[in-house]
Amino acid sequence: MKQNNGERNKWKMKYSTSRKVNGFIFVLPWLLGFIIFFAVPIKNTILYSFNKVEVGESGGIALTFSGLQNYIDLFTEEVSTLSQPIQRMFADENSNIFTQLPLIVIFSLFLAILANAKFPGRGIVRVIFFLPIVLGLQLIVEWTQASMGRTLIETSAGGMLGSGMGVDLLFQYTFLPPKTILFLSDVIANISQLITRTGVQTMIFLAGLQSISPSHYEVAKIEGANSYEVFWKVTIPLLANVTVFTVIYTLIDLFLSSSIAVEVYNFAFTKSKIGIGSALSVVYMLNVLVALGIVMLFLKVVHLVEKK
Length: 308
Hints:
Blueprint: H1 2-11, H2 15-49, E1 51-55, E2 61-65, H3 69-76, H4 86-116, H5 122-135, H6 137-148, H7 150-158, H8 164-173, H9 178-189, H10 191-196, H11 199-210, H12 214-222, H13 227-238, H14 240-256, H15 259-270, H16 274-307
Antiparallel strand pairs: 1-2
C-alpha cells in the first residue's frame, strides 16, 4: 500500500503545474485556430507589403521586391476613397475610437447595473432587453430605421439637447466650454448608435455583477457605507478585471468596424494595389497594438494609484 501511494504521489502534478496545463489546454483551440487561419495570411500580408504584387505571365502572383516603397507611397501619394490623406484618416479614426471607448464602457456598466437591479418582473425585462442583442441589435436598428425613418429615430433619441435649440440654451445658461457642449450634443444625438455597440459589453458587466458575493455588500452596510461608497469601494474594485476585458474587447471591436478596414479592402481588391493595401494593413495592425499598449498602460497606472 505504501509503495502504491508513493507511485501515485510521484506522478501527481503540483497545483501550479496543473494550473499551467489546464490554462494551456483552455487556449489550445484558439492557438490552433490562429496558426491555421491567421498566421499564414499575416505572414503573406507582411511579405506583400514589401513587394510589388502583379499577375504572373503564366498565372498566379508575381512578386517584385520594392522595400519600403509601398509604405512611402501610402503616406505620400495615396489618398482614401474620401480623398483624404492616409495620415489624416488615421488621426480621425484614432480620435473617434478613443472618444467612443469610455462612452461605450461607462454606458454598458450603467445598463448592466439597471438590468441587475431587483424589481418585479425583471426576468421579463431582461429577456426583452437582451433579445435584440442575441438576434443582432444592428439588424433591428436598421429595420426600424427603414420602417419608421432615420430622421424620426434620431430626433426622438436626440431629444431637445440634440437639437439646435437645446445647444443654444446650453450656450446661454451654462458655463460649460463650447467644445464640451458640442460634444455632449453630438453624443446624445447619436445615442441610438451608441446603444448598438453596448450589447456584448453589457452582458459581460452583468455577469461580473452577478459574480460578486452579497457578503461584500452586507459587510459594507454593517460598516455604515452609503450607496455611493459601496459603488466606488466595493463594486468598481471587484469589477476591475471585467472592466479591463471589456475595454480591450470594445477597443478591438471599434478598430474592426473602422473605415480603415474598408480602405484596406478597397486598395487591395477595388484599386488592385495589393502591395499598398498590404502596407496599410500592416500599419493598421501596428496602430492597433500601440493603442492596446496605451490602454493597458493607462489601466495599470490607474490600478497603482488606487492601491496607494
